[in-house]
Amino acid sequence: HTVRRQSIKRGEPRQMPSLPHTAESTVREEHFSSRRKQLEDYLTKILKMPMYRNYHGTMEFIGVSQLSFIHDLGPKGIEGLIMKRSGGHRIPGLNCCGQGRMCYRWSKRWLVVKDSFLLYMKPDSGAISFVLLVDKEFNIKIGQKETETKYGLQIDNLSRSLILKCNSYRHAQWWRQGIDEFVRKHGKDFLTQHRFGSYAAVQENTLAKWPTLCLQATDAVFFPPLYYLRLSPEIFMKRPVVEGNRWRLDCILKRKA
């Protein structure tokens, strides 16, 4: 903290703003609006100080990450820390520790909800661990009976069943409702079948160009929208996943190279 304080640029605020000293229970109703303004000013001053704005505890409290305000990633959905169970990929042979027995581990991850996908990152480094696409099989379940986990939340798509563990049933309901309402409002085009079996709807009169890289006279590689490429090279070009990683983007490019 000494090094951080010395590195603060001139002109930037150096002192922590102070919260109102009056207890919440003693504030009169006619003073509620001014009280809210005091708290708003306190948070605004905190967020103007880079040392505290970039602190992971501040970001967790407000529910934002480094991906929250990138316009090309679409509208901002809910975000927050979750406990993720390992496994869940719909590929035969994964996660088995023996016949009839499964072993799992739980990891703390930062979950981000967007219009056409969900992703989770490592909280310490911000590295993206997995991207779950919204598709026609997208579904959310809660409850111990469905997830085999107390206060569990299960998110399904064509390629994976993602199991999350929440702090309470109310917390699980909050995640389920937030994800479901956001996806159905902003990503409804990805929830149904489209022309030629595509996961995406036809877009008319757009400026985007989706190039095709021709490698042979009888073979080609299709490139999805660029924002998917920036997120993860592990997107599957052919779904559902029935041949392991053969049709994963990075494996396709490696094979063709």
From TrEMBL:
SMART domains reported for this sequence: PH
UniProt-listed CDD domains: PH_PLD (cd01254)
A GO MF label: phosphatidylinositol binding
Gene3D superfamilies documented for this protein: Phox-like domain (3.30.1520.10), Pleckstrin-homology domain (PH domain)/Phosphotyrosine-binding domain (PTB) (2.30.29.30)
Native source organism of the sequence: Stercorarius parasiticus
PROSITE patterns to which the protein is assigned, alphabetical: PH_DOMAIN (PS50003)
Pfam families linked to this entry: PH, PX
Annotated region described as Disordered, given as residue ranges: 1-30
Protein name as annotated: PLD1 Phospholipase
PH domain mapped to chain residues: 75-184
The organism's taxonomic lineage, starting at the top: Eukaryota, Metazoa, Chordata, Craniata, Vertebrata
